[in-house]
Design goal:
heterodimer; A: alpha+beta; Rossmann fold; 20 strands; B: mainly alpha
Chain lengths: ~375, ~290
């Protein structure tokens, strides 16, 4: 059993509080991804779990054991670093076996376990090489091998793919997911890349400024963002977000943008909102589509606008257009040619429009 | 001839002049060591040696027959022993303490760290010889004049700042993640240092050691004050034994100088090799 729990954990660097009393329960064998912009406290949290940073406040437990005063080596965790941190003076085999040698295992067992790990990661043929003779992807694999060879309770990944080029990153991402299926150990994975988070995680923790914005499955976060920040952070392209205030219009609560555009408040939100409230409303690119090329949603609001720019991507086309003064992006899945300056009728799906209180940033 | 060729010739010409300027005194010392006194003292000077011999070396190392100057041989072997004991011991202590210090400065944050570092480096700006009088007075009060320990202490103090400076730089080059991953791999801090950081910085430590050794080995001014007898006189100070009230045995002195230069020369070549680093390359993003 290796669940991990953080209870009221804080981290200070001088006067700056990098992590602010976070609570987090990581279930045994779960793949949990900590994601957020740089400086959000995700790496500090990971390093506190590893024991590389002092825990200034709160308790961290692995299994049922409190970790606060234990050294990294006593926690039975393995960490994979962004820059791999392979031991340059050792061969791949020595790199993999180092932790076992320190633990005082017999030579034969070390060899067996090193070869087993090398087999899992497909690096057996490089065992006698030095790290400097390996490519980036191979080094990353060795770093992972070094982590699994110890059979730790928890794997900690600190942005392991950010040094790789795009193609290799996709490939390694799949491999990490496969690795998790093979070894089925709890994984805590830190990244700033929402795509990595979405594709890898069982659950995602979104952090910002040292606090947890939302915890949930990738689809949870995508479908039901709890805050404006989560809504814009998850998903690509980013959710369109427009500031507005609530007014009464034709006896119905409506949202009036700064440019004076009036959009009715979605029906299910009518009761949870009041006149005069300042809000932002957001919608994803696929929820505003040119009527000509898409199906009209059941509860639609229409507008006419000219195309600023179109990006055909094959399966989809991104259309940049204006919503008043603000540029928004629309995504259509029909393979039709759209040109700049085309005048199109767009339909916004009100059922899939998100409202956020401007002051608190919380979803309404 | 174009401009580039003229430039090349000028560069080579100046380089050769420079080399001659630098090398001549050294070569003259070596040459003098193998020449008879009469040749050396001849006026007008004899530039091309007429005959060469090993008499000075024989006399120096094996006592030889009564020298041409009618002087008893100089206790070179005692001086050699003193030099070796003093240089090796002081180097060992300086590198040990300095490496720990360098590691501390590279890896740990503490209050006023930069000021302490500057302070330690500032001690290097004081000319060693200006300390000789205070050191002499203190040592004479506590009985360290003419002892190995006294001279070793002085060299250790001289060499530690440099060792700290050099090893600090080397430890800084090693990514912190290296020791962190070692610690999650099951190492204590000390094991991480021993297995990972120390091997990775060994070129730096070796260079620091060689520099410290050369400084101790070649030092003259301070030891000439602190060493009084064969108990502690080093080879460099021993050079002065070749001077008498009215005469100087130049060939003998030069023979000893050659004898001193050899280990220094070997070590200098080793520095060259060790200063080529690139050892940490490959462990991190390449």
């Amino acid at each position: 059993m290796a669940k991990v729990s953080l209870q009221g954990v804080s981290k200070f660097y001088g006067k700056v509080q990098a992590v602010k009393k976070i609570d987090l329960e990581i279930i045994d064998k779960e793949f949990l991804v900590l994601v957020g912009p740089s400086g959000c406290g995700k790496s500090s949290s990971l390093r506190m779990i590893a024991g590389l940073e002092e825990i200034d406040e709160g308790v961290i437990k692995i299994g049922d054991k409190e970790m606060n005063n234990l050294e990294p080596r006593e926690r039975n965790v393995s960490m994979v670093f962004q820059n791999y941190a392979l031991y340059p003076h050792m061969t791949v085999e020595e790199n993999l076996g180092f932790s076992l040698k320190i633990a005082g295992l017999a030579k034969k067992e070390i060899e067996e376990r090193v070869h087993e790990a090398a087999g899992i990661l497909d690096i057996t043929e490089f065992l006698q090489r030095k790290p400097s003779q390996l490519s980036g992807g191979q080094r990353q694999r060795v770093a992972m091998g070094r982590a699994i060879v110890r059979r730790p309770d928890v794997f900690l990944f600190d942005e392991p793919l950010s040094n790789l080029d795009a193609k290799l990153r996709n490939q390694m991402r799949t491999e990490i997911k496969r690795l998790h299926q093979k070894v089925s150990t709890t994984i805590v994975y830190v990244t700033h890349d929402q795509v990595e988070a979405m594709t890898l995680a069982d659950r995602i923790v979104i952090m910002k400024d040292g606090i947890i914005e939302q915890i949930g499955t990738p689809l949870d976060l995508f479908e039901r963002p709890a805050t404006k920040f989560v809504a814009t952070f998850i998903g690509s392209p980013s959710m369109n977000m427009i500031k507005a205030s609530i007014i009464k219009h034709n006896d119905q609560l409506s949202m009036k943008t700064n440019d004076g555009i009036i959009v009715p408040v979605p029906k299910d939100k009518q009761n949870s909102i009041s006149e005069g409230q300042n809000i932002s409303f957001g919608f994803r690119a696929e929820d505003i589509v040119p009527l000509k090329f898409g199906q009209k949603p059941s509860s639609a609001w229409e507008m006419q606008s000219s195309v600023n720019l179109a990006e055909p991507l094959g399966t989809e086309t991104l259309i940049f257009t204006n919503f008043g003064e603000i540029e928004i992006v629309s995504r259509m899945f029909t393979p039709e040619q759209v040109k700049s300056n085309d005048n199109l009728n767009f339909a916004l799906n009100l059922d899939r429009t998100y409202l956020f209180d401007e002051k608190s940033g919380l979803a309404i | 001839m174009n401009k580039k060729q003229i430039n090349n010739i000028l560069i080579w010409f100046s380089a050769i002049i420079l080399i001659i300027l630098i090398m001549t005194p050294g070569l003259w010392v070596v040459l003098t060591a193998f020449r008879p006194q009469v040749d050396v003292m001849a006026k007008p000077a004899v530039w091309i040696p007429r005959n060469l011999n090993l008499i000075q070396f024989e006399t120096m190392l094996f006592g030889g027959s009564e020298g041409s100057m009618g002087r008893s041989p100089i206790p070179v072997l005692s001086y050699l022993r003193n030099s070796l004991i003093i240089s090796f011991t002081s180097t060992f202590i300086a590198v040990l303490v300095g490496t720990i210090g360098g590691y501390g400065f590279a890896r740990h944050n503490f209050k006023h760290k930069n000021k302490y570092f500057l302070l330690i480096m500032l001690t290097r700006t004081i000319p060693g010889i200006s300390l000789s009088l205070p050191i002499f007075i203190i040592f004479s009060k506590i009985g360290l004049i003419d002892t190995h320990i006294g001279i070793i202490l002085v060299f250790v103090a001289l060499n530690i700042p440099f060792t700290i400076w050099l090893t600090d730089g080397f430890f800084r080059q090693i990514p912190r993640a290296m020791s962190e991953v070692a610690m999650t791999d099951g190492c204590t801090k000390l094991q991480a240092f021993w297995h990972i950081e120390l091997p990775l910085s060994r070129s730096g430590i070796a260079s620091a050691g060689i520099f410290a050794f050369l400084i101790s080995w070649n030092e003259y001014a301070l030891v000439s004050n602190l060493a009084r007898s064969t108990d502690s006189k080093t080879l460099t100070v021993g050079l002065m034994d070749f001077t008498a009230q009215f005469t100087i045995n130049w060939p003998g002195m030069c023979a000893l100088a050659v004898f001193i230069i050899i280990p220094a020369l070997i070590l200098t070549f080793m520095v060259q090799k060790h200063l080529v680093t690139g050892l940490t390359f490959g462990g991190v993003k390449g």
